[in-house]
Amino acid sequence: MTSAYSFVEGWIVEAPGSPAEYWIVKGYEHPPGKVVAAPYRRGGKRLDPRSIEQAPLWTIEHFPCRGGPVPMLSLDAASSKPVNPWRVLELRYPDLPHPIKHLLEEVNPELAGLTGSWAVFAEDRGSDVDLIVYGDPDEIYLALKYLKSRGAIVRHKHKRSEYPLDSARLLDSCIKNGGETACYTLRILRYTTPRECSKRLTPLGLYAGPLEITGEQEALDSILVPARYRAVLLKLGLPAVVETWRTSYQELKPGVYAGVLEVFADQNGAITASPDLKGHLKPMASAW
Length: 288
Known about the structure:
Blueprint: E1 12-15, E2 21-25, E3 34-42, E4 45-46, E5 60-63, E6 68-74, H1 75-80, E7 82-83, H2 85-92, H3 98-107, E8 111-115, E9 129-134, H4 137-149, E10 153-154, E11 172-177, E12 180-189, E13 202-216, E14 224-225, E15 227-233, E16 238-244, E17 255-265, E18 271-274, E19 280-283
Parallel strand pairs: 9-12, 12-14, 16-18
Antiparallel strand pairs: 1-2, 1-7, 2-3, 3-4, 3-6, 5-6, 8-9, 10-11, 11-12, 13-15, 13-17, 15-16, 17-18, 17-19
């Protein structure tokens, strides 16, 4: 069976079996005949897709693109009941809070999709609306800045342990319109179709200590998924690229951070560090 679906970051698939189990697709690169994904909801209970311990052992395989074991489904299984984000947004659009509709109108991306709890009809009154979009990232972010300048985008109502909520954050925030306020995450995709594996990663271990983020790896990298930053692991004096798929680590400012990161070397010897699975980043005073 050949899949007609373009499984990339943010797609959701309903895995075969009972109780109902949804997996969320991770990344843009997948092995032949497989889809890298992680359990997201099982029998109505939300799971942490960052933890591979919640995936059945038989689904976990080594994937050189990620430098280690990752959960994955067969392409046939993923293709049996996909939740297409672009189509489900059209289906759920009438139900969305009015401020979110206003946000989409103002941002006006080339493509917009719905993921997370709203995509599987599992939202509650406290649920963010999780959006994935594709288009010119500069124009999308300028539209968000314009909304912010008008006072329409306000600080998120929730609290996270990973970072102090900063008024400049635009991709994980809340929007006011017509007397209502609704909170959202907005992830700007780099691609809408799967890509071939671009690198082979070898794990080098964990780094724990201070690191300095000196800027984006390339222009706009801090607002794209994944975000990429030029950094120095200060205890080692080692230049690295910090790559993260987590919304909470987008829009990071240059400065010094305390962190725990997995460190990898690619086939050319370049160093990549990630806080996503076994670590964290916490800004120190100079970063904020």
